[in-house]
Design a protein that fits this description.
Length: about 300
């Protein structure tokens, strides 16, 4: 399997599907100095892809290009089989239709080198089902990005029942090497982690508006100027810890209570401690405040608002 190859040694990848997410992947891979073979059946897909890469390239330059980065290193073909035939890694990003993805992954699996990992950009489907028709399901996984995929760091790495754990380790290493923030799930679940959290917010949003508490625009205001600013760098768990002052997360639990099991409470306290226990609350608060000021100084209002 490809797991024997250092992720840093990968030179050629394939992107199957060049819509919004796929084109973003193409641009990002190119910015990391990789050669990309892309394919899509959509009309004018080649032209659209080139326009996308040209449009986002200045942003990628601003963030810093990898050695050998060159937008000219993209090769477009109408053939899926040709695109993946010599690829060392394949990222599938066709529209979010399970049957389409399942059929396409089987074609990719049949044509790609048997040692090359195959990742789907799916945002909801179980990798076990996506790889059901593949001869080599052990090298198939979900590598779920967030839009815009050329900028957002998070990639959720999800394996199916037949995915080789070494392939998941390799995928985490590969995404990390190219500058992404890879989050490996411990088991597969539909919609994964980040989308599930977003869906909770959307569900609560509908309920609040239906109850006449606020408007949809009020929700954006509440999140943008409230939790969203802090979550951008600390996340809800670390923010919960900061909310407890000198007593930290233990004080928050004592004050507001805990409706989970004692085992989950211990796990949460231990994980927060592992992440931030080396810092005093005063140091954490300075770090928080510095980040808030840095973000607020560069934020731009919605044009015309």
């Amino acid at each position: 399997m490809m797991t024997r190859v250092d992720p840093a040694a990968i030179r050629r990848v394939a992107c199957v599907g060049t819509g919004t997410i796929g084109a973003g992947w193409v641009a990002y891979f190119l910015s990391r100095g990789l050669e990309v073979w892309a394919t899509d059946v959509a009309v004018d897909a080649k032209k659209s892809l080139r326009e996308t890469v040209r449009r986002v390239w200045p942003l990628l330059q601003q963030l810093g290009l990898g050695e050998g980065a060159d937008p000219g290193r993209c090769r477009f073909t109408d053939s899926v089989e040709e695109a993946v035939s010599a690829a060392e890694f394949i990222q599938e990003s066709v529209p979010e239709q399970e049957d389409l993805k399942t059929e396409l992954l089987a074609r990719i699996d049949a044509a790609a080198p048997s040692e090359s990992p195959v990742a789907s950009s799916s945002s909801q489907f179980l990798p076990t089902r996506l790889a059901a028709r593949c001869r080599h399901p052990n090298r198939c996984l979900v590598g779920h990005p967030f839009a815009p995929s050329y900028l957002m760091p998070l990639v959720e790495v999800v394996g199916g029942e037949n995915t080789d754990p070494r392939v998941l380790d390799w995928a985490v290493g590969f995404y990390t090497h190219i500058g992404k923030r890879a989050l490996r799930l411990r088991r597969e679940i539909d919609w994964y982690v980040a989308n599930r959290l977003q869906r909770v917010v959307l569900r609560e949003t509908r309920q609040l508006v239906e109850q006449g508490v606020c408007t949809f625009r009020d929700i954006d205001t509440a999140m943008t100027f409230g939790p969203g600013l802090r979550w951008a760098f600390a996340g809800p768990m670390l923010c919960y810890h900061l909310g407890g002052g000198r007593g930290g997360i233990r004080h928050m639990i004592e004050h507001f209570g805990w409706d989970g099991t004692p085992e989950l409470e211990r796990a949460m306290v231990e994980e927060v401690g592992a992440a931030a226990g080396h810092l005093s609350m005063a140091e954490l608060e300075r770090w928080r405040d510095d980040n808030l000021v840095a973000i607020m100084e560069v934020l731009k209002a919605l044009p015309g608002a």
